[in-house]
Structure formats: structure tokens, C-alpha cells
Amino acid sequence: MADTGQHQQSQQSYERYQGGSPEAERRLFERLAQELMKVQEKNRRGAGAAVPGRAFHEKAALGVENARLRFHDELPDALRQGFAQPGAEYPATVRLSNASGIRQADGAPDLRGVAVRVTVSTEESHDLLATNHPVSHARDAREFVAFAKAMAGATTPLRKAFGLLVKLPLAVGLSTATRMRRNVRAAARHTVESLAGETYWSRGAILWGEAGPVRYLLRPTGSATTAKPGSRSRDPQYLRRELETRLARQDVAFELCVQRYVDAGRTPVEDGSVEWLESVAPALPVATLTVPSQDLDTAEARAAGGRVEVTGFNPWYTTDDFRPLGNLNRARKAAYEASSAYRHGLRFVTEEPLRNKVLGAPVGAAFRLLNRAVPWHKLPLAASLLNLVFLRKVLRRFNLIDTDLHEAPPKAGPVPAPIDERLRTARSYDGTYNDLSAPRMGAVGAPFGRNLKPEYRPDLFDTPNPVTVSRQLLYRDTFLPATSLNVLAAAWIQFQVHDWVNHPRHKPGGKAVEVPLPPGSTWHNTPGGPAEHVMRFAENEGIELPGDQPPLLFANAASHWWDGSEVYGESEQTAAYLREPDGGDKLRLEEGHLPIGQNGIPLTGFAESWWLGLSAMHTLFAREHNAVCDALRQAYPSMSAESRYHTARLVVSALIAKIHTVEWTPAILATEAIDLGLHTNWDGPPQSWLNKLGLWLLEAHSLTGIPKTLPDHHGVPYSLTEDFVTVYRMHPLIPDDYEMREHRFGQRLETLTFNDVQGRAAEAAIRKTGLADTLYSLGIAHPGAITLHNFPRALQRFERDGEIIDLSVVDLVRTRRRGVPRYNDFRAGLHKERIRRFEDLSEDPETVARLKDVYRSVDEIDTVVGLFAENPPHGFGFSDTAFRIFILMATRRLQSDRFLTVDFRPEIYTPLGMDWVQKGGMKSVLLRHAPELAGLLPRGASAFAPWRQVPPVSGGGHAGG
């Protein structure tokens, strides 16, 4: 086998990348693959089929698994490469078919094709694909897809003519369209009496080890070349019938031949429309493919044919020594993978109606013009909601940046292993296989994406000094409460963030960040450690990038999905440890509380930064899981413990997503427009004909709630983003002290500092106070406002993993080092006008003075500082700039997740589970596990609004009448 360097050299010698680079070409191919799935959908509709078929070669005449490929004993020395050895024989799967993407009668003009999978071993196979015309109608992938789009859904002669004579010239130009029509007609006018008598050409080149590029062909041998005259009849299945008859009496055999590359002019690799003439590149016989004589009308043969029909053939299912070459072949990897995934219901297409495209462009432009004078939140309700729809469209188009490390150029590989059937109905532990066609998407270890192009400025890491920024602008002088919320809202968002994001850190004592302190300052970096002139804390672990790229890519140690991983864990091992022993369906609890580990912190999915509020949330939802298991056991007695456990995981995770969408977010963004918009995300729009008409005309996708739609990644693999992490730095929500009160008589139990309720102390506090009184105490207290001068003092000197850190400084440093743009660039990247003066950011004179004192210009303002300083819209708990990341990513977390879209259905969740989610909410969770709180929850508001306080009763007894 040739080494990698030789392969790369051969690739560079024979191939040229469209767009100038493998990565540019890859992006083009991804777009073309999306277009091919749309072709499949149009073909499905045109044929009136219930499910999509193949993009091409939809109708098979033969599918067998018992063919054999045997290489000749006299194989030329130069062609003895890899599995191609003299006398070597391998089992093969063969499919013969018509080329159209729509099923039609065999007599209709069409190309014919063959797909062969040669199985060398359990680890190695080779897919060979060919059609019965020596050249392609398209030079490259762009032309190929343009032709497919022009002919999509063309089920009648009139539609076919319209596609060829009108659509195709518009797409590729008149001269190219003429050449393509000529090639297609030459191929399709050929009369086919028997598929066993046809010659099939690869048209594209493949590498044949050290022998270099070849094209291959399969030509009939012996009696297969003769077909019974006049066998073609009006029978629409005559090609199948002919093969049945033929195979009943004899083998069908083809000779595999290869044509070797000569030069770029006569045997081009990149142009599929040029024939490799045998006078230039002789066809050298190398092997014989034999389909043995058999009865195709047996149950065994029909079953084999059915298995072949669901097989996805792809020329890239091979080894690197035999990888496909050329533009058309490179495109086939992405195209065939997408086509196969779409056909098998693993990928999805959501097409924008033409009316939405036509009307959306001018309306979107009008809103962009209007917003220069009037921001969306100052418009009338209906207009502001519609404005948000178009703002989200703009953000989806410009603010989803793919950071995944893709294959470019594509690589050969084995046939993918079948999907574990259990993963079709249950979430994996690590987030794999949420998207069944891209198993690693959003999984543990997948990189954070970006909403804005990162800016790597090591020269500005310490400018201005982050410690100075913290002390001047973030330090909590006086607690500033968010009076519309309770502390449960603060606990909730940390509970959620622990599910979503986790940047791994180097171990203490390893790679660290050092922040110089202002003159005259010192800091103790470890408990009992010496006073130092720098702050030091563990650096994040990054992903190494090739070449000279800056270190700006980080993996998420949590899964990116909304999967309740903070409760259940990120691995099968952790999840099993948290369950009751012997494979029980419930989570381990000790008298209703989480069991405590050896370090004094509870055993749960994610327990970093542990404090009383997190303990309450984790305890509630561990109990909720167990309650769902009890209900499932009663409703479905035959359901196994394993099924109950995974179904309960689905139910609890979906309920958490719903609570966040329709309860927590409207509580912190307390405006009617947001409340309606978020309920529309989950339940669909209000029952108003005017609202529905507007959406039907401009954004039909929003006519139902997201759980009733199909998954849609909007052209970029799903992930959470570094910018998302930045806007969820909401530490000011945490108070520094807590008054614990008894819920029945309103008596004060004790007053505690944050240090009294964090870390190991948290469990002692919640068990002493009790869950109900803890919830009540947090429910009647206000969190801090998300603003400047309100960072919790306790978190500015906070012990974690043996380090003493100032979390406000860490927030600033992390944001800078991860390449998140500074505030002014951040807001401009989110389509807001740049600020020109410090006064544009804040109306508070003291804040403006401090900003001027700390920063040399408005362009230097830290993102976190700017988001806290910005005057938010009326009712908002955080800034409009932060909200833009939210409006983009909040819907994306639902829309990309198949368990919250296409698989949010009774067959997966059970009818009871669906009902549990649809009728449930935070109040139902609270009352299920603390029913004594019923009279204290707010009326007409979410559980995250301040609760009713019980006035203290003297003596602790009942009040008299």
C-alpha cells in the first residue's frame, strides 16, 4: 500500500479543487447535498409517495447478496494493488436499477445503473457504481445538481421538457444546457432489452493504489450479451421479468475492466463529461463479477432484495488506496450520505414556501430600515413579534459559524456500522446519535461553535487590567435586587447552564493563566498560600488546530443538547452509579435527598459550584424522575425497568426544556411580546386568524410549535457557542446572604451567608431546613439584578479545586482569551449600531465616569461589562444585545433536537409521558414534591416570580379568628 505522502502527491497531481481549496469545495458540496435532499422531496411529492426514495436510481430491477467477484489469475503486475490480487475472490452485493429518481415504467427513456459492494473482510469493503453510458452529462458537481433540480418532480413529458428547455438553461447557461441535453438524450435513447447485456462505466476516476487513477467498466460476458429479441414489451417491469427468467436458467456475469490514466487532456480526472476512449486508455480485464443462477421469487431472495433496497451505496465506502477522484466523485460523499440519510429518515428538509421567500425579502428590508429609528421592542405588539421573526432570520443567516473540524478533502472509510436500535428511542448518555446521520454532533467533546467571528488579541489579554475592571465596575457596592424574580430563578439558570456548557480546565498546578495585579495589590492564590502579585487560575483545555491557527477552539465537556445531563450524568458509568442498584429505574435518594459523596458534595450528574439553590433544583428533579417511573410502572406494567428509566429521562429533560422556554425566560424577559413569542415556540401561535395569516404569508414554519416540526440545523452543525456562554454569565443573580424562613407560620429560622450554603455546607443546610422551607425561603427572596456594580462579593473570593479565584476576573479573562469580540464589535456583529460615546451605553453619570476612567475608548469595553451596562428594554432582566444571542440559540436548542421535534411523540415518550410534559410545568413539579406550598405560589405568574410571604405568627401557633 502507498503511504499517505504518496496519496497526497497523487491527489495534488490529478485533482483541482473548486473554490481554490479543499475546505471551500467542501462547503460547496454541503450546500449541493442540501439541494439534493430537496430534489428527493420534490420527487417524493411528484410521485405521490409517502416517504422519500433515492435521489437517483430509485427503481431497482435486481438486488442480490450472493454474487462473487474473482480477480483473474493473470492480473497485470501494475494492477496488483490492495485487495486486487491474482485469484482473489470475494462475496459481492449487486443492485441493478433505472437511473431516474422517480419510479417509472422500464420502457421510459432512462439511464441504467449498477451498484456493487465487494466485501473483503469485516473491516474492508469497496463500493463500485457505474451507469450504461461512458460519460456524465455534467462536468462537475455544480452542473450535476443543477440538472437534478431542473428535473426534480418531473413526472410528465411536459414537465420534463420544461425542466430541460427552461429551468436548466437558467441554471447553467444556454451552451452548457445544450451540451448536457445532448449527452442525456444520447444515453437515454439507447434501447435496453436486458440489464444483463449492458456495459456500465464508472464515468468518474478512482485511485488504484500505486497504479494511479483509473476508470472502470463492467461489460457483459458470454451469453449475457444476448437478449431475446422483442423481449421489451408494455410490461412496466419487463427488465425485472427478463432477469428473473435469465437467472432461472444461467449465471449472469460481467467482466470488470480498468482504463489507466494517460494525461490530463485525454483522460481528465476533474471533467466527468469527457470519455476515456479505449483507443487512448485500453480497457484491461481484471476480474469477473458473477451473479449465480437462482430463483428470485423465493422468500429468501425477496428478503435479500429488501435488504439491498435499504443499503446505501457510496463510492467512498472503500480504502484510501482505492478512493474516488475528481470533483464529481468528491461531491458524491456528501451527496450520497445526505441522500441516504434523508431516505432513511435520519436527516430532514424544511423548505421555505415560495410566498415566504417573495414577501419576506421586502418585509425584512422594511424592518431593517425601520429599526434604525425604532427598535423592535418599542413597536406595537404585532409588529414587534413580526420584527423578531425577521431578526431571527437574519441572525440564522449571518450568525451561525461552523467550527467543526471537517474532512477536506473527503476521506475513504468503511461502511458505517448500523445504528444501535436503542438509540432511536432513547437519549445516549454522552449526546451522541441525537442526529442519527451525524453521531458526534453536539456530543461530549464536540467543539463550541461561534455566533461571531472570533478575535484573537493576545496583546490585549490584560488591557485594561481585568482586576481593575472588576473592582471599578463589577464589585457589589450595595445589593441591587431584581424585584420581579425570586432566587429560584437564579438557581434555575445555573441548573441549566450546568446541563449545557462546561469548559474543561487543566488541573491545578498545571497550565495556568496569570493576571498581573494593579500596583500595590496582592492575592493569595491557594488557601494558606503566600501573597503574590499575580492572580493565577487553571487555564482551559483547548483543541489543537492545524497550521498557524490561534488556539481558539474548545471542546464542551457537557453534551450540547438539552438532555438533563446535570441530573443524569454525561457517561454510562456515571448514570449507572446514580441509579438504584441492580439496574433499577429510579435515581438513588436517601430519605428524599441526594446521596452524599466522599467529598461531602451530593452524587449527581454535575455538582461543580454547588450551593443551596442547586441542591434544591437537583433534589426536585431527581424526585421528579422517580415520580415519572412510578407513573409509568402503574400505567404500563409490562415495561422493563430499563425502558422506564430511559423514558423518564426523556420526559424530565423535555419538561425542563419546556419550563425554561415558557416559564423562566418570560419571567426574566417580562414583556408581552416575549411571552407570546416563547409560547409560540412551544405551542404555536395564539388562536387569532390575523396572526396566523401573517405567519402563513411570511413565516409558515412558525404556524406550529417547534415540537411539531422537523429538526433543522439551518445549514450549520448544531452546537452551543462561545458567545452563548458569554451572555449567560449571570453571576450577579446570586445574593450574598439568605434568610431561611418557615413556610407555615412565617418564622425566621436563620440568616446565612453564601459561604454557609455553598460546597459541603449546602447539604447540611437543605437537610436541616427541609426541602419545602428551602424552596419557600428562595421563593420569597429576590436575586440580584444583572447589572454593573452587583457581582456577588462571595464569588470574588471563592475557593474552587484548591484555588482561590475572583470569579468576576475569571469571567473577563475567559471571554477575552476565547476570542469573543469586545462589546462594541459584539453588538455590531449582532446587527446593532455601534456606540460612539460612553454616554450611549449608560444613563448613570457615575458609571460613565468609571467607564471613562477604566477604558481608553468605547471599542475597548469588555463584552461582559457592556452587556451589564447596557440599558435593557422595559421589563428585560438583561440587555437587548444579549437577547439577540438568546433569540437565535433558544429556538436552535429546540429545533435541532430530534427528541424535541420529530421524535417528540407518544411512540417514544408514551402517551403518559407526552401528557406529563404537555400539562406539566414548574408549579406542578413543586407541588408534586412539596404540596404544602400550594397556597404560596404566585397567582397568574410563573413559579420564578416572587411568592406570597407568610406573615410571622407570634408564638408559632395558629392565628385566631
From TrEMBL:
InterPro entries assigned to the protein according to its UniProt record, in alphabetical order: A_dioxygenase, Catalase_core, Catalase_sf, Haem_peroxidase_animal, Haem_peroxidase_sf, Haem_peroxidase_sf_animal, Oxylipin_biosynth_metab
Disordered: region residues: 1-23
Record GO terms (molecular function): catalase activity; heme binding; metal ion binding; oxidoreductase activity, acting on single donors with incorporation of molecular oxygen, incorporation of two atoms of oxygen
GO annotation (BP), single: fatty acid biosynthetic process
Record keywords, A-Z: Dioxygenase, Fatty acid biosynthesis, Fatty acid metabolism, Heme, Iron, Lipid biosynthesis, Lipid metabolism, Metal-binding, Oxidoreductase, Oxylipin biosynthesis, Peroxidase, Plant defense
Assigned EC number: 1.11.1.6
Protein name, as recorded: Catalase
Organism per entry: Streptomyces kanamyceticus
